[in-house]
């Protein structure tokens, strides 16, 4: 045991070299058992697991909807369902995937579990608020499911007026469900920002903060500022349907295009709520499996904040054909090109981190390589759509569908899968079958490209999205895309199979199976109830791979005031007074 004493305080502080096998059986899953303990828990780790289970469930529901859509489009005319049913299915696919899966998947699920561990905190700042956010999510999901059973909706996930304000179905109920889910997102953002500002361990300065924490910080800013706009928009839509107030009805002096302005002012930043946390996952996995300090730490960290800022200024690129002023379209086009710069900074820095690294081709890194290719295609095709002349031709075609899925599924979902595989040993204490993981990664990559690359061709030739019937020249593309969707579905099922199987038959994970230098890997697997037995004093950064592992240590500070109780420690915020030998 290494010890040190702070010369600037009257209290003695001991700094212990961490022993990962200290009390390995005392962890959060063994503290309380039974369903009620889970339903009433305020432990961020259990709440994160419940979020992960819920979003996985809705991912499979949304995936089934996608397969039904692709199966129906096997033939140019009706294949097996009616047109109205088709409209409801693709609407539900979009709404479920966006609001119940993509938005909460990384921040609420992985973020809840990992963030306090990376900060050296015992929990999030507001544990009960954290549990409330989960129940708001479930409540909104329940209301949305009730809307499906009570008439369904066929407006598309964007709820565009004037159709959504006049059509039948349970639009009001669905809108209310999404309204509730939005509060869950806001509370999560408030919790994360407060936790990052107020609950960092001694010595954990901003330049030692993990890039995953930086990404959650940027995401939380977007959640807090943008989500209320969506809530107001959906509330106005509900009032229009119930009270007939006419905000979006031109017959009553309203403007249906105003709804698009409101909706996309939230929904384009929401794209970054989905993808920016994935960027943080990429940074963590890249450094761990290349055994190198991240290249351009501050550039990556600040580019997340830049994306958060610029994302509020680009909503008008969804409306180039809506009749907005030419000058406005030019400004939005320029800003859309601009938002690609901080994203490009990340891509270059990740590549530079890999350069001359000691690459370990484990499955999390393979998913990141898949992310690189797919997200690059999605990003470059987004630049195409930022060009006004090209967007006029490609607007509302399958080109946009392919672009969106390359960003969201090829980018965010691949990053999510990398994160789940990376942190699975820490979350569950078990190792999965690495061979099956690599095979599944290949199947998902192939299936995704077979599904969506043909849609770029269709879109460039004028195939509109959302159409139930289409002309015969597009049938070969649709059939290839449908085959690819089933390959993609097989890959996801394979991932689900071996991860669930690992819970029962997987090898027990060691404290740090990847040899990472990040703080969450320096504690027991599974983590203790309150994460750390002592207050951690951060001596090293999360990416200090230039130090040999035997020299890398986590300081654990405890008061030795003679009473065996933790007390306030007067140490410098950057940990410089801690002289760990």
Give structural attributes:
581 residues, mainly alpha, Cytochrome C Oxidase, Chain A, 16 helices, 62% helix, disordered C terminus
Quick overview of this protein structure:
The protein is mainly α and 581 residues long. It has helices at 28-31, 35-39, 44-72, 83-119, 127-149, 163-166, 171-198, 211-243, 256-290, 297-310, 326-354, 363-386, 388-394, 398-428, 434-460, 475-505; strands spanning 13-16, 535-537, 555-559.
Layout of secondary structure:
Blueprint lengths: L12 E4 L11 H4 L3 H5 L4 H29 L10 H37 L7 H23 L13 H4 L4 H28 L12 H33 L12 H35 L6 H14 L15 H29 L8 H24 L1 H7 L3 H31 L5 H27 L14 H31 L29 E3 L17 E5 L22
Antiparallel strand pairs: 1-3, 2-3
Helix pairs in contact: 3-4, 3-5, 3-16, 4-7, 4-8, 4-9, 4-14, 5-7, 7-8, 8-9, 8-10, 9-11, 9-14, 10-11, 11-12, 12-14, 12-15, 14-15, 15-16
């Amino acid at each position: 045991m290494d010890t040190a004493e702070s010369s600037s305080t009257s209290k003695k502080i001991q700094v212990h070299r961490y022993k990962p096998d200290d009390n390995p059986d005392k962890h959060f899953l063994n503290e309380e058992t039974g369903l009620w303990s889970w339903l009433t828990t305020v432990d961020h780790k259990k709440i994160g697991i419940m979020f992960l289970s819920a979003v996985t469930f809705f991912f499979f529901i949304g995936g089934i909807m996608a397969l039904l859509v692709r199966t129906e489009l096997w033939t140019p005319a009706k294949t097996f369902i009616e047109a109205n049913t088709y409209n409801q299915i693709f609407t539900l696919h979009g709404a479920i995937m966006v609001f119940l899966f993509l938005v909460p998947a990384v921040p609420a699920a992985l973020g809840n579990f990992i963030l306090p561990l990376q900060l050296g905190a015992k929990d999030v700042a507001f544990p009960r608020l954290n549990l409330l956010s989960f129940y708001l999510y479930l409540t909104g999901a329940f209301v949305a499911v009730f809307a499906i059973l009570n008439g369904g909706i066929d407006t598309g996930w964007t709820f565009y007026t004037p159709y959504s304000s006049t059509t039948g179905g349970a639009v009001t109920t669905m809108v209310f469900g999404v309204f509730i889910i939005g509060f869950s997102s806001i509370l999560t953002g408030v919790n994360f920002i407060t936790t990052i500002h107020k609950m960092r361990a001694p010595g954990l300065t901003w330049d030692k903060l993990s890039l995953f924490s930086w990404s959650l910080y940027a995401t939380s800013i977007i959640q807090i500022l943008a989500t209320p706009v969506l809530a107001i928009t959906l509330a106005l839509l509900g009032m229009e349907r119930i009270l007939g107030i006419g905000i979006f009805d031109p017959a009553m002096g309203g403007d249906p295009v105003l709804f698009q302005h409101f909706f996309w002012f939230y929904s384009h930043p929401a794209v970054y709520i989905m993808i920016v946390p994935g960027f943080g996952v990429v940074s963590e996995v890249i450094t761990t499996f290349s055994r190198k300090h991240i290249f351009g730490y501050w550039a990556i960290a600040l580019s997340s904040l830049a994306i958060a800022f610029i994302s509020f200024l680009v909503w008008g690129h969804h409306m180039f054909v809506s009749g907005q002023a030419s000058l406005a379209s030019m400004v939005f086009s320029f800003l859309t090109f601009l938002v690609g710069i901080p994203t490009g900074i990340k891509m270059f820095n990740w590549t530079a981190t890999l350069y001359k690294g000691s690459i370990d081709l484990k499955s999390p890194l393979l998913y990141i390589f898949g992310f690189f290719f797919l997200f690059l295609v999605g990003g470059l095709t987004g630049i195409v759509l930022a060009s006004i002349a090209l967007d006029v031709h490609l607007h509302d075609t399958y080109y946009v569908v392919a672009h969106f899925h390359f960003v969201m599924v090829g980018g965010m979902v691949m990053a999510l899968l990398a994160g789940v595989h990376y942190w699975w040993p820490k979350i569950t204490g078990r190792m999965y079958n690495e061979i099956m993981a690599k095979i599944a990664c290949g199947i998902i990559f192939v299936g995704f490209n077979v599904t969506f690359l043909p849609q770029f061709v269709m879109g460039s030739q004028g195939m509109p999205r959302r159409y139930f019937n289409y002309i015969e020249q597009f049938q070969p593309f649709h059939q290839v895309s449908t085959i690819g969707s089933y390959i993609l579905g097989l890959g996801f099922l394979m991932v689900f199979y071996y991860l669930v199987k690992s819970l029962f038959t997987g090898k027990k994970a060691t404290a740090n199976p990847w040899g990472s230098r990040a703080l969450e890997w320096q504690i027991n697997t599974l983590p203790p109830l309150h994460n750390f037995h002592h207050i951690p004093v951060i001596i090293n950064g999360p990416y200090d791979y230039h130090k040999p592992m035997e020299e890398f240590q986590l300081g654990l500070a405890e008061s030795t005031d003679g009473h065996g109780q933790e007390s306030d420690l007067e140490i410098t915020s950057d940990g410089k007074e801690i002289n760990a030998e």
